[in-house]
Amino acid sequence: MKEKLQRRNKKRKFSGIDEHKLKIQPSHVFYLIEYLKSAEVRYVVAPYEADAQLAWMARNNMVDAVQTDDSDLVLFGCPKVLFNLNLCVKSASLGDCLICELDSILNDNFPDLSREQFVQACIFAGCDYIQCLSSPSFRKNGITKGIRLIRDHGTYDKVIIFLFFPVFKISFSCNTLYFLHN
């Protein structure tokens, strides 16, 4: 029995499933919407990913906070984000979560950075939306290196020159030699 449980746990870890997360199916959404309608609860369906829309709603005082396990909401400017909210009814820590307030994050931890610089530092820390930044070598950078790059160079365009100019310069020089000497 113990071996069977260990195999099942290994399979869960390998497939990215853990006991605290649930894969939301379209049928779940359908039943939730039907329930909300029957209870006359107002709701919004996001056209794509909801992060930007939820952050906008929070910035415009339509919601008090947004719960997520993804830090993108902070970058979208959501004023208050609840991370790791425990909704396990059988748990003694039901309702526990980490509350992050954007103003506190910026003022207490990065007073020397503007919000734009903070966002850029986070992008340099690793980003799913820019192909060269989603490479395994860039993902290793982390937030500390992203913050340092922006602090050292001030703007993202200067960071890009710092990071990529040496590679471009070598490539350019090699291509010049190739065309001149062949």
Would you give an account of this structure?
The protein is mostly helical. It has two domains: 11-109, 5'-nuclease (Rossmann fold); 110-182, no CATH class. The chain has helices spanning 2-15, 26-38, 51-59, 72-75, 102-109, 115-125, 136-139, 142-153, 156-180; strands at residues 66-68, 80-83, 98-101. The chain has a three-stranded mixed sheet with strand order 1-2-3. Helix 4 links the parallel strand 1 and strand 2 (80-83). The chain crosses the membrane at residues 159-180. InterPro entries: 5-3_exonuclease_C_sf, PIN-like_dom_sf, XPG-I_dom, XPG/Rad2.
SSE order and pairing:
Layout lengths: L1 H14 L10 H13 L12 H9 L6 E3 L3 H4 L4 E4 L14 E4 H8 L5 H11 L10 H4 L2 H12 L2 H25 L2
Parallel strand pairs: 1-2
Antiparallel strand pairs: 2-3
**Cα shape:** elongated
Could you give me the name of the CATH homologous superfamily of the largest domain? 5'-nuclease
Which band does the percent of strand residues land in?
5-15%
What is the CATH architecture assignment of the largest domain? 3-Layer(aba) Sandwich
Q: Write down the CATH class of the largest domain.
A: Alpha Beta
Tell me the distance between the termini. Answer: 70 Å
Question: Roughly what is the average pLDDT, rounded to an integer?
Answer: 78
> What are the low-pLDDT stretches, counting only 5+ consecutive residues below 50?
8-17
CATH topology of the largest domain, by name, is: Rossmann fold
Discrete helix count: 9
Tell me the series of helices and strands, N- to C-terminal.
Answer: HHHEHEEHHHHH
When the domains are counted, the total is: 2
State the strand order across the main sheet.
1-2-3
Using only C-alpha atoms, the radius of gyration works out to: 23 Å
Largest sheet: 3 strands, mixed
Binned, the helix content reads: 40-55%
Number of strands: 3
- Broad structural category: mainly alpha
Oligomer: single chain
